[in-house]
Amino acid sequence: MPTPLDDNRKPADPLDEAELTACTIGTTPAWGPSVARDLISTLLSSENPFPCTFAVAAAKKRALRYGFVESPHDDGTWGPLVDILRDYLDCYQDLGKDTSLVVFFRPDDEALSLDDYFQRFWSVLQFLHEKDPEPWPAGVPTDPEELMWEFSFGGTEIFVVCNTPSHVTRHSRNSQGFMITFQPRWVFDGLEADSPRGAKARQVIRNRIRRFDGMEPAPELGNYGEEGNLEWRQYFLADTPDGTVPACPFRAGREHRPPLAADDETPERQR
Hints:
The protein is an alpha+beta fold. The protein contains 8 helices and 5 strands. α4 links the parallel β1 and β2.
């Protein structure tokens, strides 16, 4: 079976209506097909190859799943996202390692500032966390500043990527509207930084970033678990090489934190 690194099959055509319906979790609004096909056209372009070879492979295999949310600003419309993500987590392993859930939000009439989208992005993740029916995974830190932290939902660690229309220089993070991609950490098994396949994949992707974005890969793009790397910094990148983003606002609710082991019940931890 071809891998993302050696898949030379002819790109598939953009999604038709039946395929989009089959790949969508939840309902597809009237504005949905346009943004989904725009993404697929970007991923399958032969003239301007998209950097993430795994996303390209997923698009070719029809292993991407899509969800649609009416507004990035009105959290009253975010309720369906909980079920969309839960349903995806119930089936993602059946789709193979080349899979992601892409959630599109209705495009704004006018793009907002990058800072506004940054706040919206973390508000969505905070909302999902607060609606999560499952406790935070016991082996995952709850503080984003911890080395092994990763966003988690439904007991599953998930790498998250945000694209916005205000990413106009870093083209690989640009999209027609506000968009969030969820990748269960399971898809990266076997691609660790110290593995030959993982090292090769990162080299290929970084070279493609240089061509696609016309700049060096963001310094925040590190390897999970590697000293100095913080996952949250990769979720939402600045638009320029010298740009910065605010501090991570995510806070794990006490009700979601895993219970302490008996020998951890010190006065310091009980406060």
